[in-house]
Amino acid sequence: YCEPSDIEFINKEHALCISNHRGEVDWLLGYTLLERLNGLQGCKGLIKREAKYLPVVGWFMWFTDYLFLSRDWTKDKDTIAKTGAIWANYHPVGNSNFYILYAEGTRFTPQKHEASVKFCEARGIQPLRNVLYPRTKGAAALMAQ
Predict the structure, then answer these.
(1) Average pLDDT, stretch 39-58?
(2) Is 123 in a helix, a strand, or coil?
(3) What is the pLDDT of residues 78-101, one digit of tens each?
(4) How far is residue 51's CA from residue 102's CA, in Å, rounded to a whole number?
């Protein structure tokens, strides 16, 4: 969600978009919006490693320096540090960076929601009803850079 007045700032200053990953192609809506606002060239995202093998879309993500994660902190820590250094120095001509983060780390399904509820209950955290508990360690490490 953003205010209509926020639209004028897209492509004029850096932005972080945090969204729920509810379906198969919700990311496509974001790409379409950014393309219409001339902001797609500054788009970066954190995504699971397997996505880089998707025809066309995965290649686009690979060639535009998306951050591909295995969702294993011991493997991803160095990747996050290297990509963070690249992103910190990336400034597309006449554009700003637009970072996309689906904090849940995966699409919502009843089975994944059940696992999320169990995760919360085991840690004394209030379970969420309509979304999965966010995975924040990698994003927090990246933004700290």
Answers:
(1) 85
(2) coil
(3) 998 888 888 877 766 666 778 887
(4) 14
